[in-house]
């Protein structure tokens, strides 16, 4: 508390009482610089401020770059048809078409298609970059498969930091899917042909 010194003279003894000081509280409050102090410090040290600002911004940019992965996407378009060129074309319902298109989306992301995609020549530039375990999951995490509404067009998209590698991923997966679906359609056609031949032989024996 403030006040004037108090002196008491009692014979040979003199007692002096000094007022209390706020210096401790003041020094403690100045340990945290205020905004105005920082502004004045930057004003009188512009070169140091510019250097420190440049270093700080570079560090923040490096941290942001490492935490946020820039994404480039490449797309492949595939025309998907459930009905094939046959003499008697069967009629399908909307629910059957939707189920077929959904099955094609699942086929693109299936282990057999992704495993085949990893073995294609487009993936050669990823040598040494793929994980030792979980390569199929690594590839699946970079893919997106969508059916365009009201059409028979399926979009296969791949994302990567490099646009060239995003295109390579898309080409590898799209190529592997086309090989797989062509092989399946060929097997189905051969199966139908054998069934027709057996039916024809059974009719001739009657």
Q: What report would you give on this structure?
A:
Helix 5 (111-118) packs across helix 7. The protein starts with 5 loop residues before the first strand and ends with a helix. The protein has 206 residues and is an alpha+beta fold. A hairpin with a 2-residue loop joins strand 1 and strand 2 (13-17). The protein has helices spanning 23-29, 35-44, 46-67, 94-108, 111-118, 135-140, 163-205, and strands at residues 6-10, 13-17, 72-79, 143-147, 153-160. Helices cover 54% and strands 15% of the residues. A 3-stranded antiparallel beta sheet has the order 3-5-4. The longest helix is centred in the C-terminal third of the chain and has 43 residues, at 163-205.
Keywords:
7 helices, two-stranded antiparallel sheet, 54% helix, alpha+beta, single chain, three-stranded antiparallel β-sheet, 206 residues
Low-confidence stretches: 13-18, 21-30
> Overall 3D geometry?
elongated
Sheet with most strands: 3 strands, antiparallel
| Strand arrangement, major sheet | 3-5-4
Through-space gap between termini: 124 Å
Gyration radius, in Å: 39 Å
Name the helicity range. Answer: 40-55%
What percentage of the residues does DSSP assign to strands (E)? 15-25%
- Average per-residue pLDDT, rounded, comes to 77
- Put simply, the count of helices is 7
Q: Return the structural class.
A: alpha+beta
Kindly state the number of beta strands: 5
SSE pattern, N- to C-terminal: EEHHHEHHHEEH
